[in-house]
Design goal:
By secondary structure, the protein is of the alpha+beta class. It is built from 12 helices and 11 strands. The termini are far apart.
Length: about 425
């Protein structure tokens, strides 16, 4: 577009407009002289007629061109220096600058809007730049499903989420981040931080997703022992001695898998670490964001990092445009639901496998015991009386729902609840 203020003075333009008004020049002649289009000509003409004495085409800005306010540049420099300290810190697994994270921190502290490219430009200028190596084996991140609920990606990451979190012996304190991601929308349906990664922690995540969103088609995970029994690898695992034959892969259903299948969903697994890597996970994004914020805020406890996690999940789901879909995850999820592109259905206890009367008999730990001659069974070293008058040697199923203070034990025979009791949570059930 022609910038006439660089080629003509205000007086020259005013003279041409005056000649047009008194009929000395035609509109086309003035436009040709000034290099204007018709719309721009009438815009200037109206401006001139409104106030000829103050008419001007001088180009003014509300802020200096290509120069941010000093407060913003100082904030950018401060955040770049802070990021450099993270990279130089041997206790932090950060190797590169995160310019998007720096942009967000500057916007929050100054209230000014800027782009990540602006941060990168200053980073190059001030020598706060580390180029990322190109991965020759990088995959194309793609959406495999066209409806929400078809494929739920589930995984965990054990990490020192804050450089200020240490155990009493001085070693880094690590916690497990467990997440569930809807493949189609890329929305995080669940994200929780646990002191330990246990089957019960994963069952808690499963319950949260299905109670809030409903029952989908399949869960996709890696081959961790919590998710899958693998022959040879797990042959010496818990309970293997009770089997008198060689077990094949999937001959045993781990606790988490039993809960998934009880709701009617299917558990599927990545055939290799590379296959799992091809389905994009938000862990790197989350890990980088959480660690940086935990460092900025000197977070030392799991409660403090959980608060940061909640805020970053909100950013990821509701404000960040996903690079694979080009959409905000929560909006993409809602659009799919509104368009009828969802396979989620409410959890119906009459359709579970087997049908139950309480969700406690779905989301629980399962084990079996034989009743002794006194009508009791032993669990975690505790003698428990079994409801009903059952013969010696009768096998009953126990459904265990651990709690911080109390643990509920439910006794079942042939999928019928005989009764339940609550006991003080044994140490072995404190997850």
């Amino acid at each position: 577009m022609v910038q006439i203020h660089n080629n003509f003075s205000d007086d020259q333009i005013k003279q041409l407009l005056a000649w047009y008004i008194d009929g000395t020049m035609s509109r086309n002649d003035v436009c040709d002289q000034l290099g204007l289009k018709q719309s721009r000509f009438y815009e200037l003409l109206n401006k001139y007629k409104t106030n000829p004495s103050k008419f001007s085409v001088a180009y003014g800005r509300n802020y200096p061109n290509r120069h941010k306010d000093r407060i913003v540049t100082v904030a950018i420099r401060r955040e770049l220096e802070l990021d450099k300290s993270f990279i130089d810190n041997p206790n932090m697994s950060i190797m590169f600058y995160n310019y998007s994270s720096i942009r967000d921190a500057v916007e929050e502290s100054t209230g000014s809007h800027l782009t990540a490219q602006t941060v990168i430009n200053y980073a190059r200028k001030w020598n706060f730049y580390i180029g990322r190596p190109k991965n020759k084996n990088s995959h194309i991140r793609q959406v495999l499903t066209d409806q929400v609920g078809m494929l739920l990606q589930h995984d965990a990451s054990l990490h020192q989420w804050s450089p200020y979190a240490f155990r009493p012996d001085g070693k880094p304190l690590k916690w497990s981040l467990i997440t569930t991601l809807d493949d189609h929308s890329r929305e995080l349906l669940y994200a929780g931080l646990f002191e330990h990664e246990t089957a019960w922690a994963h069952i808690t995540a499963l319950e949260s997703v299905e109670m809030k969103y409903g029952v989908g088609i399949q869960y996709y995970s890696d081959n961790h022992a919590i998710f899958r029994y693998v022959a040879d690898r797990d042959k010496n695992g818990t309970g293997a001695a009770t089997y008198q034959r060689v077990l094949g892969t999937d001959d045993i259903a781990p606790q988490w898998k039993q809960c998934v299948e009880a709701t009617g969903m299917k558990a599927t697994y990545a055939l290799s670490p590379e296959a799992k890597g091809k389905i994009e996970r938000p862990y790197r994004w989350m890990q980088d964001r959480i660690v940086r914020r935990a460092a900025r805020e000197h977070a030392k406890t799991i409660e403090a990092v959980r608060l940061i996690l909640d805020q970053e999940v909100d950013r990821y789901n509701n404000r960040a445009v996903h690079s694979a879909t080009g959409e905000i995850p929560s909006i993409r999820f809602m659009n799919a639901v509104n368009d009828g592109r969802t396979v989620f259905r409410p959890l119906d206890l009459t359709r579970t496998k087997p049908p139950v009367s309480s969700t406690k008999d779905i989301f629980c730990l399962r084990t079996a015991r034989k009743v002794n001659g006194y009508g009791k069974i032993s669990l975690a070293g505790i003698q428990l009386s079994v409801p009903g008058d059952l013969p010696d040697g009768t096998e009953v199923t126990l459904h265990i729902i651990p709690g911080n203070q109390l643990t509920e034990i439910r006794f079942l025979k042939n999928n019928i609840v005989l009764g339940y009791i609550q006991i003080e949570t044994p140490d072995s059930f404190r997850f």
